[in-house]
Amino acid sequence: MKEQDEKIQTFLPDGTKGEYIIKSKYERWSAFILSALDTEDNFTLNDVLEKARSNSAPVLHNEIGWNILQVKRDLEALGFIKSVEDPDLKHKFYLKLTRQGLSKRNYDNQVAQWADTDDNKSKK
Question: Which residues constitute the domain of residue 37?
Answer without folding.
Answer: 3-116
